Amino acid sequence: MTESTFIGGSDNPNAVPHPSAAAPVSEVVRGRIAIVIIVLMVLVADVAVYHAAGYFGPAVFFVGAVVLLFVGIPGRCVSRTSIILTVMLVIISWRLACNGGGMLVVAGLWLIHALVLALRRETPFFLETLVFAAQSIPGGYEFLSAINSQLRERVLKPVDEGKSSRMLDIGLPVASGLVFGGIFVMANPDVLNWVSGGLADMFRSIGNFFEHFSPFEIAFWCAIAWITAGLLRPVIEGFLTDESDSTTSVWESGEAPMYNAFRNTLITVITLFGVYLIFEFKPPWFQKLPEGFHYSGYAHQGAAWLTVALALATVMLSLIFRGLTLCDPRLGRLRKLAWIWSALNFVLAIAVYHRMLIYIDYNGMTRMRVVGLLGITSVVVGFALVMIKISQLKNFLWLIRRQLWIVSVAAFVFVVLPVDSLIHRYNVRQILNGNPAPIVQITEHPLDNEALPVLLPLCEAEDGRIRFGMQAMLLNRLDTLQIRHEEDEAAGWTAWQKSTNDSRLALQAAEPDWTAFRSPQERNIAWRELKDFAFANWW
């Protein structure tokens, strides 16, 4: 790609302008727009990220970055993928404004690079997105270097060709006037004192201005400018590998040497899975769980190992149905065995979900159980992709790219969901319906401010230990929220969080009903009694 491509923004990376040809007006305008976008991106990042006191600043930054990159990318393509990614970024920004966290920021940064790829008519696969993010470093260098090269070309090249240079026509007289004017000033002491005093005041004002900015902030500006330049004018164009070619186009049809080994392996695992599932669907599926049932071992650890089995089955099928196997005339028989094993795998997935639900029914929902459910679902969807790969003779690259998509979507769902609010809605409902075991998930796990209003119904529970313990805990959290509210107001708008503010107002509205605890000592006693009660019975 030529230097003029980065400034001019040509959509064709192979187009090389003639040395004597002036850049078209449209390309010059694109280059100027790119420079304006970079400056605006630095300003937005400085205000909303570098000086942010909380996560509302990054929420604003991501929205601003989407708008600026959309304007700055030449020949942008608005597609279904780019619309989906934009919606995902808006959701990220909303969650950052409500209840921000570091994982949301990481997800937002990844989505920014994926969106740029989509706007440039590339498919934003996960690994390719990481490569694209890495190329923004050399891309930024090439872009900024091209600015210097074009300035030299515009100033000196016309002279070399025997033509007039507009920049030299103006710049040389100005420079000459400054040089000789400086000499004349130095020769006159009165004028020198007057000029030096004015220059001293000017440099003092400039120094005072830059005193407000630390070297780290200036380095941050440079980094944002560099990366933005690399996103607007990347050095890599069309780097995605074609995944449409099937292996059958490489090898001629013939018997695969590993066919018998693969067939025997599938028969073995089908038999093993069938025998295991007979035992899996015995009790505790169809009868009441016995006293002293090992919930952790059966439902927690067992579900994890069965998920590993599903993932390993996915890998095995992927390795079997590739290469020479796809050209074997007996492939149809192997496929029938694969469908049978696939059906058993889906039955096994039902068993994994059942084990997780046993654990959830025992003592409630937690963050890690949400992670477990999302992980199991990802494995199941990934296995379905393997079946599509086998039936449509897709290659391994096709599968890997979409498997990584599934994992990325699961991670996105987890970071944007108000997880604590959702899990404790379930736990509160269970407690109020006569199953107090989920109270241990409230007393023994960290709790986001966002979920505090969900716990308010427990302050009216029939069990006095739960009722008074929850009132005591929520009063302590209200004191913390009041302090944070004052700190956030002092820090400015970037520290604002919707969920924290909503929780503070909800607890303030309920506080007059909690007359039993006015001293910290009484609260601590009631909270400790509830923790001991929950820990002793259900942890």
Structural description of this entry:
The chain has 19 helices and no strands. The chain has 539 residues and is mainly alpha-helical. The chain starts with a helix and ends with a helix.
Give a summary of the structure in a few sentences.
With 539 residues, this protein is mostly helical.
Task: Pick out its properties.
539 residues, mainly alpha, 19 helices
Order of helices and strands: HHHHHHHHHHHHHHHHHHH
Number of helices, counting only DSSP H or I runs of 4 residues or more: 19
Mean pLDDT over all positions:
80
Helix/strand-derived class?
Answer: mainly alpha
Radius of gyration, whole Å? 32 Å
The coarse overall form would be: flat
Present the secondary structure layout:
Elements: H1 3-8, H2 25-50, H3 56-72, H4 80-99, H5 102-119, H6 126-160, H7 166-187, H8 189-210, H9 215-232, H10 259-280, H11 295-320, H12 331-363, H13 367-392, H14 396-416, H15 419-432, H16 439-443, H17 464-491, H18 498-510, H19 520-538
